Amino acid sequence: MGLLVVVANVEKIPCLNTLLVTMSHIHYSPTIEIVFVLEGELEVSFLTTSNMFISKLIKKGEIFLFPKGLVHFHKNIWRMPAAVITTFNSKNLGTQSIVSTLFVAMPTIPIDLLSKEFQIDTNEVEKIKLKLKPKN
């Protein structure tokens, strides 16, 4: 998962026995986003550079790290609310909608290519493009 936790506790350092102290040092691999679930459950997914789809259900108290630069998402798939805390390795983070970007790119991506890649009819591609077209 790209995470290494080194713990200093009473088992490793016996003189900490009466101090009620534990310390940890956490090493993160270069990641773009870390999600910690406060409430509920989320489906977290990303696509590797070899086009493998990775998906997992994470619950309250669990953490998930998204590798840097990979297409990813997280969504609430249940009917109950969910809440997360996220951290990023960027001082000025932005988001990008993949579908919007592909369907309204300039110059435009050919409809037959979008149809083939999304495995939808060319008429459906046209409908999506019209729906996503920026309003002037």
Automatic annotation (TrEMBL):
Q: Which InterPro entries match?
A: Cupin_1 (IPR006045), Germin (IPR001929), RmlC-like_jellyroll (IPR014710), RmlC_Cupin_sf (IPR011051)
Residue span, Cupin type-1 domain: 4-126
GO MF annotations, alphabetized: manganese ion binding
UniProt keyword annotations, A-Z:
Apoplast, Glycoprotein, Manganese, Metal-binding, Secreted, Signal
Q: Where does oxalate bind?
A: 33
Q: What is its main location?
A: secreted
Provide the Gene Ontology terms for cellular component. apoplast
- Tell me the superkingdom of the source: Eukaryota
- The signal peptide annotation in the UniProt record is none
Q: Which Pfam families match?
A: Cupin_1
Query: Which residues bind Mn(2+) per the record?
Result: 33, 72
Subcellular localization is given as:
Secreted, Extracellular space, Apoplast
The answer on whether this UniProt entry bears the keyword Signal reads yes
Q: Which SMART domains match?
A: Cupin_1
Coiled-coil region(s) at which residues? none
The family line of this record is: Belongs to the germin family.
The protein depicted here goes by the name Germin-like protein
Q: Which organism is it from?
A: Gossypium raimondii
